[in-house]
């Protein structure tokens, strides 16, 4: 096994005095090996809309599963290769997310093609479920429908919120660029105060930098995890024919990161399903509150008819969920 070292510069979402922080990288290219190198700087936090989307989500409480999808990009990919992408389900709980989001879209006559980005929020320990859409909406028409339903209106942080009624215990907000739905009524999820967003937390900044330009990802806090605190499963696509999955796991310590990387390497070794995979440790700075992250990139093989194999429960995720 050989070791490579890389230096990665933190930029977006990180104060300037901390952007010079670097990460030492210990990596293994499975089945190919790698050489001792000094890698290029990467502004990977700027590469995705994920950071901006996480800035819309409150960090309190911290037990929320987050799903993000660049819907516009996914539509482009699906158009180019419908057989590979048509059945892709991007959210942590696709059936519930599709049911609630589809219901809202149908009820308020929102064309899915109007939606550029989606966020799906679900709690691990409460009934909370919420959706955030960024796009171009007919806010006047939607507002008329909300009023016609007899929903009570209230103001929250300068935004009109349409509350629940006897048939629907959801809060809604709408503007020309945003549409949100939150269950149960009165739960604060989006547009947090300064410094209170998920994007402000070190763990999520590290995940954004690790994931890169994902068109879809789910992020789950690991409350009971001894070695890992957060697990993100994302999808990357240079083109419709050049795709891969990426897993980023936030470790509770440098030792935990090294242990997790060794566990993953042992699981993937000799597995044709994961041929060409790369396992890397992006070392943080515990003294400055930046945790280390284990990164696993699994390319889709030419024989894979569908994308998203990394999200399906297999030996890789099974091993990580035990840590």
Q: Can you walk through the features of this model?
A:
With 323 residues, the chain is of the alpha+beta class. Helix content is 23%, strand content 27%. It is built from eight helices and 13 strands. It has helices at residues 50-54, 71-80, 82-85, 94-107, 139-148, 202-211, 254-268, 315-321, and strands at residues 25-29, 64-70, 115-123, 129-135, 153-156, 159-162, 171-174, 178-183, 216-221, 228-239, 242-251, 278-282, 293-299. Helix 7 (254-268) runs antiparallel to helix 8. The longest helix is centred in the C-terminal third of the chain and has 15 residues, at 254-268. Residues 1-48 have low confidence and may be disordered.
Summarize the structure.
The chain has 323 residues and is of the alpha+beta class.
Total beta strand runs = 13
Shape: globular
SSE sequence, one letter per element: EHEHHHEEHEEEEHEEEHEEH
How much β-strand is present in the residues? Answer: 25-35%
Task: Report the end-to-end length measured between terminal Cα atoms.
Answer: 23 Å
Determine the structural class based on helices, strands and strand pairing: alpha+beta
Work out the radius of gyration: 20 Å
Low confidence ranges? 1-48
Fraction of residues in helix: 10-25%
List the helices and strands and how they pair.
Layout: E1 25-29, H1 50-54, E2 64-70, H2 71-80, H3 82-85, H4 94-107, E3 115-123, E4 129-135, H5 139-148, E5 153-156, E6 159-162, E7 171-174, E8 178-183, H6 202-211, E9 216-221, E10 228-239, E11 242-251, H7 254-268, E12 278-282, E13 293-299, H8 315-321
Antiparallel strand pairs: 1-12, 2-3, 2-9, 3-4, 4-8, 5-6, 7-8, 9-10, 10-11, 11-13, 12-13
